[in-house]
Amino acid sequence: MNTTAKKPTIQTEPVEVAPGIFRLTVPVPFRSLRAVNLWLLADGDGFTMIDCGWGDEETIDLLEDGWAEVLDGKPVTRLIITHFHPDHAGNCRYIGDRWGLRPKMTQLEWMAANAAVKSLYSDDYELRGTFWAENGASDELIDLYRKETVLYDTGVRLTDGFERIVPGDRFTIGGRDWLVMTGQGHSPDLVMLYCEADDILIAGDQILPKITTNVSVWPWEPLADPLKEFLDTLDRLERVLTDRTFVLPSHREPFHNATARIAELKHHHAERLDLVMELLPEGEARTAGALLEPLFSRELDGHQVNFAMGEALAHLNRLMFEGKLIRSEDDDGIIRFSRVSR
């Protein structure tokens, strides 16, 4: 089991992307992502920080360097964590101890983080391996998963407590009014911040440029429908955002025109649903594992096996809830999907 991976060389110098809003990009130990964006927002006598990065000494050094360059001697006075994933929550304790803060999070994200750090919830190593096997992952993929998955507790340390935020909360930060919105599908209750006056969205992982947010079924809720939750969130955002919205995503570059990107994401998932149906001929039952090669053209590393299996299941479950597929478990314990007979 590999718990570390070599981090790529990236540009880590802070960049002011809008007046008083600074992006600090730090590496993560996941080949597919490379880096995560953290945000520092000027806020009167201090700064509000959004997200924490993966928890290791290299990232802590980059945080200290970024603070020295951006804060101008002022403290971080508020920490908001968008969601529990390790590249967002990793340095929670370090930042909390460094500045005397409790993180602000939704309750579900706080609970998910605490479960994951104890190797439960999304990070139950053995349960995941068993679940992927039951859903048709090959022995080779399971072995790869076991060798290369990056475990949550190797890069996350949490504070003892948190402060709950909920949709509809508002923060005044540096003269801007920010509305708290939440999204589902990628994570239980991910926080986004929207400033209507300046039409800026701090999006977390809910809307990303060029790459698509992972939407997965996980073993503790095998009949979940996260793709519907994700698409429902896009519908809600579409009613608020505009073709001028400046989106600050957690990965890759900020971009404009949120509504166009939302349309692209909806189209992407519609195409994936159509492709899954094409891969399930009438009268044949297939596993999620059997669909990985046509669904994911590039070679998967062990950590990506989780996301590929989870995302295949998310699309299969959506089609099942639409009444197009039947899910069955055979005597051998393998879960398969087949078309509904017309």
What does this structure look like?
There is one protein chain. The chain has 10 helices and 16 strands. It is α+β, with helices and mostly antiparallel strands and 342 residues long. The protein has a single domain, classed as Metallo-beta-lactamase, Chain A, CATH 3.60.15.10. The strands form 4 sheets. The chain has a 6-stranded mixed β-sheet. A 5-stranded mixed β-sheet has the order 1-2-3-4-5. The radius of gyration is 20 Å and the shape is globular. Residues 1-8 have low confidence and may be disordered.
Tell me the strand percentage band: 15-25%
- Approximate helicity band: 25-40%
Number of helices, counting only DSSP H or I runs of 4 residues or more: 10
CATH superfamily label:
Ribonuclease Z/Hydroxyacylglutathione hydrolase-like
- Give the total of domains: 1
Given the helix and strand composition, which structural class is it? alpha+beta
Give the name of the CATH architecture.
4-Layer Sandwich
What topology, given as strand order, has the largest sheet? 8-9-10-11-12-13
Q: Write down the oligomeric state.
A: single chain
Distance between the termini: 46 Å
Number of beta strands: 16
Q: Kindly state the mean pLDDT as a whole number?
A: 94
Rg from Cα:
20 Å
What would the principal axes of the Cα set say about the shape? globular
Described by strand count, sense and barrel closure, the largest sheet is: 6 strands, mixed
CATH class: Alpha Beta
Regions with little confidence, pLDDT below 50 for 5+ residues:
1-8
Sequence of secondary-structure elements: EEEEHEHHEHHHEEEEEHEEHEHHEE
